[in-house]
């Protein structure tokens, strides 16, 4: 692949331990607007304005790379995936028009504001139940107690997954992150691929189950849309939508909750402020999405040669859109390295993407995070980080949040 006039950074490796521990330290070193990273074979785009330009031009920048395995897979693993129906362009986020709209339109219809609003009492009751379970503990892991189980339980029940299968689905989602956004060892790829095929089959069987016994859930809403015009939305396509939602509606929100709590507790004054003034919580969530987004990177691939930020990109150039860097761009935000609960324009962040693929669950994810924070602040107005902890992160390029976040109610 030609890199023409593009700077090359041999040292940039977003899966290295140093990068995973602190990408912001790497970011702070002067970054050109666009550079090529041989470690992953991607062009890294760092500026807000350029990333926005990419999102706004889907004809030039295809979504096909959005979920492709970052590292090439072993032939045996590829074979298992293909046989299991996990094709290279498997779901909504990585389809271009018109195939994308075929899935997005019915999904958006079923994922209506009405259905999201109707979930509020369930989200509140689930958060209460989860926090009741650790009541009285002098210290607890916020991720295990709340940030992980809350979004998982909510999105699975919204979809209509029976509760007994939640644990299995959570495990498959972890494998999916490793497959598409990580660098799994060849010996692990076969197991991961086998799980992905099982995950696909599960979603297809869930659709059959809901055809036979519809419920008050999103899967049944999609089947009702299929019944109106079977050609417009097939049962296989419904399974694909559920596959998208089960993953997208889960780790992303876990990261959003834990990143927000971490950033608030880093300066206890921030926590005390939101505990005293809970109407600041929506702002805290937006600021966290700008300052430390739970989806740090998204991907595109060029459909033709094009110039971006003065750099000539060939056709089929794979782009690493560094959303976390866009949030720290001085040209886009004043004093971007400062976490500011009162920032007037934090919601201009690109943490949910932009344009045709703009995150379908943005309002839903934010709502869950707001409810989680409100419950926490009400119960624990003096919450603090447990001292001396080093945060660890799942080794993938996109989904980011501490794996463990120990806190003390005081
Ligand atoms: C709360 C944190 C979340 C973040 C930071 C996030 C981020 C993103 C990003 C960056 C994209 C790609 C956008 C683009 O290509 O322009 C996306 C797409 C998507 N998200 Fe989210 N997301 C979150 C939560 C959710 C939730 C809760 C759901 C559903 C329950 C969801 C469902 C989706 C779907 C289905 C897409 C693909 C949309 C399409 O291709 O048309 N997300 N999200």
User: Approximately how much helix is present in the residues?
Assistant: 40-55%
Radius of gyration: 21 Å
Shape descriptor? globular
Main sheet specs: 5 strands, mixed
Strand order of the largest sheet: 1-2-8-5-3
Decide which structural class fits the backbone: alpha+beta
Succession of helices and strands: HHEEHEHHHHEHHHHHHHHHEEEEHHEE
How many E strands? 10
> Which distinct ligands sit in these coordinates?
protoporphyrin IX containing FE
So how many helices? 18
Could you list the spans in which at least 5 consecutive residues all have pLDDT below 50? none
Mean pLDDT: 92
End-to-end Cα distance, whole Å, is: 56 Å
Strand content: 5-15%
Task: Describe the fold and architecture.
With 410 residues, the protein is an alpha+beta fold. The chain contains 18 helices and ten strands. The strands form three sheets. It has a five-stranded mixed β-sheet with strand order 1-2-8-5-3. Strands 4-10-9 form a three-stranded antiparallel β-sheet. The longest helix has 27 residues. It is globular and about 55 Å long. The site of protoporphyrin IX containing FE has 28 residues, from helix 13, helix 14 and helix 18.
Task: Write the SSE topology.
Layout: H1 17-21, H2 23-28, E1 34-37, E2 42-45, H3 48-55, E3 61-62, H4 75-83, H5 99-110, H6 113-118, H7 120-132, E4 140-141, H8 142-147, H9 149-159, H10 166-181, H11 186-212, H12 218-228, H13 235-248, H14 251-266, H15 268-276, H16 281-291, E5 297-302, E6 306-308, E7 311-313, E8 318-322, H17 323-327, H18 362-379, E9 384-385, E10 406-408
Parallel strand pairs: 2-8
Antiparallel strand pairs: 1-2, 3-5, 4-10, 5-8, 6-7, 9-10
Bound molecules: protoporphyrin IX containing FE.
